[in-house]
Amino acid sequence: MNSAHFTAGVDEPAVVITRVAEMQWHAVADDRVVGRGEAFRRPDGRIFLSIDSWRDTVFDQLAEAMLAILPTPLHTVVDEADLDLTSSWRRVGFSTGRREWEYHLPTDPRVTGLDTVRPPSGVTVTPIGAARQGPLREVYDAIRAEVDVTAGWESMPTEVLVRSDGTAPLDPSKYAVAEQGGRYVGLVRVVSRRHHARIGLVAVRADDHRRGIARALLANVLGALHRGGVDTASAEVDESNEAAKALCAGLGARRMGSALELVRR
Description:
CATH topology of the largest domain: Aminopeptidase
InterPro entries: Acyl_CoA_acyltransferase, GNAT_dom
Largest sheet: 13 strands, mixed
Number of domains: 2
Radius of gyration: 22 Å
Order of helices and strands: EEEEEHEHEHEHEEEHEHE
CATH superfamily of the largest domain: Gcn5-related N-acetyltransferase (GNAT)
Protein name: N-acetyltransferase domain-containing protein
GO molecular function: acyltransferase activity, transferring groups other than amino-acyl groups
């Protein structure tokens, strides 16, 4: 693999940056790995970077080697509270693309006010794990196409891995869905752990907005989590998504922090 040699500063050993794999770089000084860089392509085609090094000079050298090869635009995500890491990425030419707020939602229906919520007329909610693969794929693809022509799918907090043919596998065990007239009109993706759960996606077909379907889905999902002993669920919301922020606020969610998506064009 290709290597780049960097001269050392005062009292610092020389650094060799080596591309050890197609999307991985190592920084080595005195036969010791002092930094790592990695690039990965998300399902929407965007390339995201990560660099791990405690020395600013090594961070900059890894960034220089990676940026010389990879096509722009390039992205990375940082905790906004991590001022040092944010500063490092800005130093090598990245700027804020968008901000995502993290919320913690209570699951107790007496706290969220969802104890009396029912699906709108003609709509039924299928709980997590019982969705059918075919209709789930249909509603996922339809919602993605709708979002792509408005806010853009990159504004959604998706973490669905992509197959080699470019499609995203959907695991019904992680989804609850709303159904009307034989088709799915909304979905929620949930990743559960022992004492916590993450709401990865809440979405409803555009023609079915403002009917209370999202609240009905969340009532079902959060209620099930509460009965299973999970007290809190986390969710990420794009700063520009006023409807999602209002929904979280209405459920008694607490805003816990924020992440920045930085971009270099």
